[in-house]
Amino acid sequence: MKKAIIFWIFILIFPVKSQDFLSKAENPTTRVGVQSDATPLVLKLEEAIKLALENNNEIEIARNEVKLQESQLKSLLGTFDPVFTVTPQFTRTSTTGSRASDDFRVNAAMTKFLRYGGGSYRIFFNNVQTENTFSQAQISSGAASGTSKLYSSNLGISITQPLWRNFLIDENRRQIKIQRKRLTQSDADFRRQVIEIISRVQKAYWDLVFALKDQQNKVANLNLSKENLRQIEAKIAAGLSAPIAKAEVNTEIANREAEVLLAVQQVSIAENTLKGLIFKDTNTEDWKKSIIPVDEPIFDENEKVDLEDAITQAMRNRPELKRLKLELEINKIDKDFFKNQTQPQIDLTANLSLNGFSFGKINTQPQTLPIISGNPATNPDAFLLQQINLVRANLNPSLPPVSSPVVTIPGSPNFLSGGFNRSIANMFRKDAPNYSFGLTISFPFKNQVAEANLASSEINKQRIEAQIRSTEQGILTEVRNAVQAVETARQRVLAARQARKNAEIQLEGERKLFEAGRSTTFLLFQRENALANAKNAEIRAETDYKKAIVDLQKATSTILQANNIEIR
Predict the structure, then answer these.
(1) Average pLDDT, the chain
(2) Number of independent structural domains in the chain
């Protein structure tokens, strides 16, 4: 009894010096790359998820893939944009021994493919000014021929409409339908990537929570051993313990300090993992800050998970299953197209045009012209007339020469004079319209390409259906395992809590025995380590439970709804 009194008086009067190796050691909780003077980043789980959605590079890559698919769809839809073309052209034609002629053309057209029916139409407006005598002769002769420029205008529409092959679906509409499905697939891929990142952020957050709690427990255990050292040194000074007891305590302190260092390393790994998920730029100053998570792993021991409901949600929500079902829809589009390509091709063609022409300078008055004229050396009729007059002159010089018969040519109508303005106006005369209708019928005797593609699409359908069944089985297995993991984690929390409470009771009893001199430092250290391990097991079970919930939400693809995230 006297020794115990002396022991406590010694502790109160004489402080114990720290061990040399501890005083010389650096702060064991210091982490590489984290500035101790930097303001810590206090972070809620909700805020960490928000930062990841804004900054995560993998999410940005998936988001850009969706934008790329949207651009490709717009590109394919551009097939149905009207195309306007205009082709001005000047031509000079010169033949040896004749006057050169100049032609000027301005042709304009607008072409457009139809969204429905697979047809197309072309609206054209052509204008020609020509000095070519042959072209003029095709339209007019006599007084107008060769005397002026010819102006021609042509306005019309040409339509091509498939009636069988390419009517319900053609290559352009096939690619657009497929691209719409690809866009939906990329959206599903984006959702899957977001779900993946959110689940990783949550698990990294809870890993950091555990690592910090574990570090705190290890530091508290280390401080507890230092207090034990103080008491042992006091006992040694009071003659209550042998000096060898100090070595035992120092050994335990060194072991616990090593555990603290390992715990600090785990904090650094968990923190860097979380930073990599929520920060975009590697050069941001936030990498130098420590993260302090403020959310606690709250546990509801009465919470239960319904397996059948979880399976139903997974089958309805899983993005990869949606992707495969979209792939099956794409296969149906291909199958419909290839089946359509096995049909004969019957195309209706229709043309309607308004044609007008005019001359620049023509004679609108009647003209009297000889039937026989020209050089007798080159014109047989003129030569014959010359010979007749020579014979008449030889027979009787008093006979008058025979003149050529004449013909009266009426002048050209006034509506043919006036240049381009007149030719355009003439397009709307009653005699201007022209139209035609026809069919183009084409069918191969053996359409092996389309038939082979159709057979391939049927085989591909069977392959995709097998993939869907396999994926559904994998999802079913994953969900069942996730539900089991949640239930196991829930029970682990209950067991860990009970173990921690018992460890606290055991340590308290062992400490009283040690103070009364009825226990050893070895047994005391065992109880302290057992309590530290129990505390770590409890926080590990609680964070594992939270991570199991995350895995279940990921397996059922309900993690977006659970975190109030809406993807638009």
Answers:
(1) 84
(2) 2
